[in-house]
Amino acid sequence: MKKGKACLSLLFLALFATTSPAIAQIETVDRFVPHVSTVPANEGDQVGLYLHEKIDASLKTQIAAGASPQGKVVLFIHGVSVTSAPSFDLPYKDYSWMEFLASQGFDTFSIDHQGYGYSPQPHMDNPCNLNSEDQASIDSAATTNCSADYQRQLTSSQTDWDEIDSVVDYLRELRGVDKISIIGWSLGGIRTGGYAANHGEKLDKLVLFAPVYRQGSAATAPSNFPAEAAPLSLQTKDTLLNNRWGSNVACENQVEDGIAELAWQSIMSYDRFGSS
Is 249 helix (H, G, I), strand (E, B) or coil? Predict the structure, then answer.
């Protein structure tokens, strides 16, 4: 019965996407939002958070003419495994959630948190900062007789909330609106849920898509942050496609042929260190 429910849910999502009108004149705009980092590895530094936009040309023209997009500005927040653009703007058929909403008249954005994609990745360019198990799986001379230069947890819920707040304020000013809507996927549920609890006055709507909920997590911040830990972890293609995603396949023909490989290619195009 559980498998049947999973298949029906996915079928509903597919029908929802394929009944959308033809997408035309959707423009892509990439920016870097200024932010004073609260991540311990680069705390106090002025950094740029990568912001990806999809907007219909007609809405862009209306905004330029002075029309307010109040109620139409949407920000996507990614999960733990994959950064924003491959998650929400996969360039294949009708797989882009951002383009679908853009075609319905929304101004859609997605961000990369620090540690992901085109946003800063402090100390992640040193493979010796991986834990010993991950290092052993790399066939590279780069980890031979090397030494780590940072062994602390990289980010926290608070640093994520700080980054979301910078982007939310940026979008409110950019578009001249009081509130925006946020969509969070997977770990993005913790990121956006916690943010909404602290800054609800800046939000119109909150959508949580398959959100992570960690019941045993502490209600208060740890006293020893950043804790000793590898600042990055290794996720292989097999781990992501076969273990994490493959374990959710519940029925026949649930996954379109070739889509996993296409998704991986998109992920690698946004992963400067992983792709090398």
Answer: coil
pLDDT in tens, 40-93: 999 999 999 999 999 999 999 999 999 999 999 999 999 999 999 999 999 999
pLDDT of the residue at 183: 98
| 51 belongs to a structural domain | yes
Domain limits for position 216: 23-128+150-235
Q: Residue 208's beta-bridge partner residues?
A: 184
What pTM did the predictor assign?
Answer: 0.89
Q: What is the CATH number of the domain that holds 56?
A: 3.40.50.1820
Mind listing the pLDDT tens digit for each residue in 141-164? Answer: 777 878 899 999 999 999 999 999
The domain total for the chain is 1
In a domain, 124, yes or no: yes
Residue 18: C-alpha distances to residues 12, 39, 60, 251 (Å) = 10, 41, 24, 20
Q: Which element (helix H / strand E) includes 53?
A: strand 46-56
Per DSSP, which regions of 120-179 are E strands? none
Residue 77's H or E segment, with its range, is strand 73-77
Let me know: does 134 contact 80? Beta carbons within 8 Å.
no
Q: 261 lies in a domain?
A: no
31 backbone dihedrals φ, ψ, rounded to 5°: -135, 170
Element (H, E) at 63: helix 57-64
Please state the length of the chain.
Answer: 276
Q: For 96-147, what is each residue's pLDDT tens digit?
A: 999 999 999 999 999 999 999 999 999 999 999 999 888 888 877 777 878 8
In a domain, 116, yes or no: yes
